[in-house]
Amino acid sequence: MTNTVATELTRIADLLKKGRRFVIASHARPDGDSIGSQLALAYVLRGLGKDVVVVNKDQAPPAILEFQGVRDIVIADRVDGAFDAAIIMECSDLARTGVQGLDQYLVVNIDHHPGNTGYGQINWIDESAAACAEMVFDLVKALGVTPSVDVATHIYLGILTDTGSFHYSGLSPRTFDVCRQMLEAGINPTLIARQVYDTSSLGRLRLFGAVLQAMQMGVGGRAAVLYLDHAMAHAAGGAYEDTDGLINLPLTVKEIQTVVFFKRGDNDEYRVSMRSKGNVDIAAIAKEFGGGGHKNAAGCTVTGELGALQKTFLSKLDQAIALSEQNPQP
Ligand code: 5GP
Ligand code: MN
């Protein structure tokens, strides 16, 4: 940890000790790391006698919804009321929350994404953390709290999901050390993994099948292009929202280095998700289109004609693959 990072952590711990009421927000379409980070901190603060409201723009994905406390998260697009600070987790800019009104409070920005804009009064950014939940563990320690099983479960949930089950780059000895301590705190990693990965529906599996059946290849078999619209989801009998994890499946093929997934929204708007292996950097591509993310997992929202968009992204992926081949890494 650099000195600046350590100072910011201490400042946040002091603020949390002194304050009474906090709102904790994360990004729209929250994932395991955003929810895990928010709830772990919320439980710790409530244990210290604080009033905490956890708010998100969108509901958690179905598998995550079953974890302790997730159904109590307030779903809203505006926050008002008296708070000593707004703690924002996992957001490279404040607009990523999709929640209005947070900027009326003292904003504490806690994130591990590269390219964070530093929008808070306090900005604690640690790109070396594999998950925001890894940072939350540091904060819990700085507050002098021993994590309960519920806190530890949420921290582990964040790390498990944000590392793609310990697949992505960004893993460090610290990642495993935090996980070890969560096991010592009494979590059941098998049950957590079963809940996250093995509780989906037959409709979802069939939807995955339909999307994979329609998969197109590019860049000499090294890039996979996925597409989903409402009609396809309906025909397969799956829920349109329920596609978490689908994008990772093409990467199980040895030759496939990158995946781009176009999910149709209203009119000509598409949610674009990308994944890559090793040194293929897709964060830069997402950023170019107004999005962001990590080297191996990034996304953005774009508007245009599907065929043209696919061509554009394939050519960007082609360049990213070519660049990585000059500088190979596992
Ligand atoms: P996903 O493909 O699962 O939606 O997102 C993968 C990663 O990229 C996540 O770390 C997420 O935070 C980031 N990401 C996805 N979409 C956006 C976006 O529109 N803007 C920014 N800044 N980051 C994004
Ligand atoms: Mn994260």
Describe the structure.
This protein is an alpha/beta fold and 330 residues long. The chain is 38% helix and 18% strand. It has eleven helices and twelve strands. It has helices at 3-18, 32-47, 62-65, 132-142, 149-162, 173-184, 189-197, 202-213, 230-236, 283-288, 306-325, and strands spanning 21-25, 51-56, 74-75, 85-89, 107-111, 122-125, 216-218, 223-228, 258-264, 269-276, 292-293, 297-303. Strands 3-2-1-4-5-6 form a six-stranded parallel beta sheet, with helices on one face. It has a six-stranded mixed beta sheet with strand order 7-8-9-10-12-11. Strand 1 (21-25), helix 2 (32-47) and strand 2 form a beta-alpha-beta unit. Helix 1 packs across helix 4. The chain is globular, with a radius of gyration of 20 Å. Bound molecules: guanosine-5'-monophosphate (5GP) and manganese (II) ion.
Please render the helix and strand layout as text:
Layout: H1 3-18, E1 21-25, H2 32-47, E2 51-56, H3 62-65, E3 74-75, E4 85-89, E5 107-111, E6 122-125, H4 132-142, H5 149-162, H6 173-184, H7 189-197, H8 202-213, E7 216-218, E8 223-228, H9 230-236, E9 258-264, E10 269-276, H10 283-288, E11 292-293, E12 297-303, H11 306-325
Parallel strand pairs: 1-2, 1-4, 2-3, 4-5, 5-6, 8-9
Antiparallel strand pairs: 7-8, 9-10, 10-12, 11-12
The protein binds guanosine-5'-monophosphate (5GP) and manganese (II) ion.
